[in-house]
Amino acid sequence: MANFLDLACPHCDATDKIEIASTLWLRVTETGTEPDFNGCYEYTPHSSAVCTNCGHAGTVRSFEQAGDKK
From the CB of residue 51, how many other CB atoms can be counted at a distance below 10 Å? Predict the structure, then answer.
């Protein structure tokens, strides 16, 4: 396992260059917004994911390694 989600790019097999689009809670302030760093973010198997090594894009589910797909 190369990352805690056991994800790998199905195109180039990279495991350390995967980015996932997630929902992040923001705190509204007088000067703008700040990220809520209490770990409040969400993603699902259907969230967008991209390999920054080769540019392959898909969903988190498409980056799951073959033996892990349910």
Answer: 23
Tell me the pLDDT tens digit for each residue of 48-58. Answer: 999 999 999 99
Assess contact for 17 and 2: CB atoms under 8 A.
no
Task: Give CA–CA dist 4/26, Å, rounded.
Answer: 25
**Which residues are within 8 A (CB) of 7 and not within 5 positions of it... i.e. 6 or more apart?**
15, 18, 49, 60, 63, 64, 65
Three-state secondary structure call for residue 61:
helix
**Measured distance CA(40)–CA(59) in Å, rounded:** 21
